[in-house]
Design brief:
The chain is an alpha+beta fold. The chain is 13% helix and 31% strand. It has five helices and eleven strands. The chain has helices at residues 16-19, 23-30, 78-81, 130-136, 204-207, and strands at 12-13, 34-40, 46-59, 87-92, 96-102, 111-119, 153-157, 165-168, 185-188, 192-195, 198-201. It starts with 11 loop residues before the first strand and ends in a 5-residue tail after the last helix. It binds a DNA duplex (12 and 12 nucleotides) through strand 4, strand 5 and helix 4.
Length: 212
DNA sequence: ATGTCGATTTAC
DNA sequence: TAAATCGACATC
């Protein structure tokens, strides 16, 4: 692992080549990586967020009945058919924006939904859910099509050890026939907890105690 | 032109 | 358990 003179591990921005793998693989690989978001506030100041990804889901193509691309190539899904390493951000439930990373080969409509993260920038943002994550990090439909090799929205590998990963079926896709049970959701085991049927995050591994 | 429904979150 | 809230998509 390359290191800076400071002794800190090098921060490597993920490349288009990195994203150009099957969504199922990318979803697992993105657990533990650092999502970086920079945006310009009204007063002109640049705000930066950094958060470790702890939950993802893979949407694996047109044959995946839970994938938006199962409805074919439309204005909305077009981005997923293109090259990997671009953001697919869509609006849902009249309220929330969902962040996905396009993956796989051109022509294969695959993407990875970013469902949860924990701040590593000293903030106390609640990023425990795909809608809450985008709202907190100011990611919206305006970011649809954003190039993840750019400077406003990208992911870095901080060289941390690969986390232990838990796989489960995806959330909220009960309509997807046989695809609803496919284990395409990936969670950092240190943050996995089930309270009833609602996914929650256990931060005890990081802070030494269970939240209320 | 109109109706259905959702890759969620929050409140009751 | 249900409301909020609106764009995408299917259908007429």
């Amino acid at each position: 692992m390359a290191r800076h003179k400071s002794g800190h591990p090098a921060l490597r921005k993920l490349t288009a080549e990195f994203y150009a793998r099957p969504a199922e693989k990318l979803a697992e690989e993105l657990i533990g990586k650092i999502l970086v978001r920079k945006w310009r506030a009204d007063d002109g100041k640049t705000v930066e967020h950094r958060a470790r990804i702890i939950e993802t889901e893979a949407y694996v193509g047109e044959h995946d009945l839970a994938c938006h691309a199962a409805k074919g190539r439309t204005a909305r899904t077009e981005i997923m058919f293109g090259p990997a390493g671009f953001a697919y951000v869509y609006f849902i439930y009249g309220m929330y924006d969902m962040l996905n990373i396009v993956s796989g080969k051109v022509g294969d409509a695959e993407a990875v939904l970013i469902r949860g993260a924990v701040p590593v920038d000293g903030s106390t943002l609640d990023l425990s859910g795909p809608g809450k994550l985008t709202r907190a990090m100011h990611i919206t439909r305006r970011d649809n099509g954003a190039d993840l090799t750019g400077d406003d929205l990208f992911i870095v590998d901080d060289g941390a050890a690969k986390p232990v990963i838990v796989r489960t079926p995806r959330i909220g896709v009960d309509y997807a026939k046989q695809w609803k049970d496919e284990p395409l959701r990936f969670i950092d085991a240190d943050f996995h907890r089930v309270r009833g049927s609602v996914p929650r995050f256990d931060i005890s591994a990081q802070f030494g105690k269970v939240p209320p």
